[in-house]
Amino acid sequence: MTPTVLVIGELHDGRLAGVTAEAIGVARSLPGASLVGFVAGTGAKAAANEFGKYGVARAYALDDPRFDSAPLAARVPALKKVVDRESPAVVVVGGTTNGRELLARLASAANLAVATGVTEVTPVAGGLRIRRPVFGGRATETRQLTGARVGVATRPHAFPPAPETPGHCAVESPPNAEVPAAFLGAQRVTLSAAPSTGGPSLSDATIVVSGGRGVRSPENFHLIEELAASLGAAVGASRAVTDAGWRPTSFQVGQTGRAVSPQLYIAVGISGAIQHIVGMISSRVIVAINSDASAPIFRVADYGVVGDLFQIVPALTAEIRKVRGL
Amino acid sequence: MEIVVCIKPVPDAETRLRASADGTTLDPESVKFVVAGYDESAVEQALLLKESVPGSKVHVISYGPAPGTEEVLRQAIALGCDQASWIEAPSESISDPAATTRALAAAIGPIPHDLVLCGKQAGDDESGLVGGGLAELLGLPDFGCVVDLRWEAGTSRFRFQRATEAGQETWEAPTPLLVGLQQAWNDPRTAKLPAILRSRKATITKIAPPAPPVDAPKNLAERFELPAPRTGAKMIDYKTPEEAAQKLVKILREEAKVFP
Predict the structure, then answer these.
(1) Which of A226, B92, B179, B244 is most buried, with most CB under 10 Å away?
(2) So what's the ipTM on this one?
């Protein structure tokens, strides 16, 4: 019997989110897996068709606008029915804030052994072996999840998206499930998209350029933004910058802000307080530009430039624009 | 309002981590335990609500082993929580989020709870699984990554902000509900000495954890690894800013291969 793997999708602007393609990639890497998708919200039916191009031949779409502004809890009864019907051996979800919260509820509802923030997945008898960073990337743990059903939330960007293949997805509605009234009493009343940096969002970006106290004033922050624009990168900031009000708190990378794990992280004028380090330490390559050669950031960086950022950063922006033909 | 706040003892962020002798987990003897940062925000939130909604009570509860758990519960009492319960955890199950979730649900289910608060995740394992899992078992809606939780007496609803990858959300929700808080947005208070001294004599109710169900899937720690110490950055030698930029871009393209 081939094991069924359920991929819980997430909608982003009416399409399957990038993290969902990554989750499908993980699901496809499991030997002999038969894949089935799930997605909820307005436009879920259309978005579910996209599962096809990633090699998922069947999907359930809970296409109902109620689920856009209702708590995540409201979609769990339908998801539970899908799990009961399909009996997946493994459930995979892209580990965004919402993906993790949904998996947490499903773990209790459907008796799953689960792990979040997962960066490696290996099949073992009766389940999965997973690895995940803990303690803000200061350590890594390996766990074994075994039982009738197990689940993982992937760490965003830790896995490549599933390669696209020509394929069709048969989309159906999930079995009818009653939503407890208690779950529909709460309402999302406003949603404001994260302030645009003109580039990708912090958590989606494969390159992040962050500025710190060394930038000296909000008027100088355009240096960071121009470097980011030359790389198609997202803009981040240290806590010193957001506390001073130079940039909104949504820009903050660190323990009290957002944790990011891009392919390349460039820290400009950031000394490297532990609270910042834990938010970016799991980036693949770290570059630090700072005038102080003894700044702690150079101990965690892969490459360092000691110098005046007001000279180095414009030169770097110009060089990148040159090699990229911009 | 009956407020229950769940806290977890975690190693102090400044602690030097060490793996246990068998290499499967963190060596608990090597660390000093403190309230998880996100849970600290939850305690502060509970106390702010207690001050603003007359007749409120705050019950703090923790599932954890000795050492560490009793100490963090006494810290919460010193800060102003009214009542504390300790579910004594067998040390082999503390890293299984399902065990924590079941134990908290068994303890909270029978007691009054208009609002259950916790951190959005713990500062050690960063799983973020207990809030949602607990809410599911208690039949409550849950909201993680929340800041600025306020009670609106006029409408008898909570109003709060929630930050996700998609943006900033504003929610309104009636009780009962579970809220997982973002860290340190509310500048948690510190305890005063007389309160710390009184908290040492406070009664902590001990609760036995429920037995795991026979069909419980297994979530076992196999290895706990510390990375090889970073050797420090490879520093770029240069005479002009232009030379620094050229060398760095060349390395990023050819050695680190982070862009074409």
Answers:
(1) B179
(2) 0.88
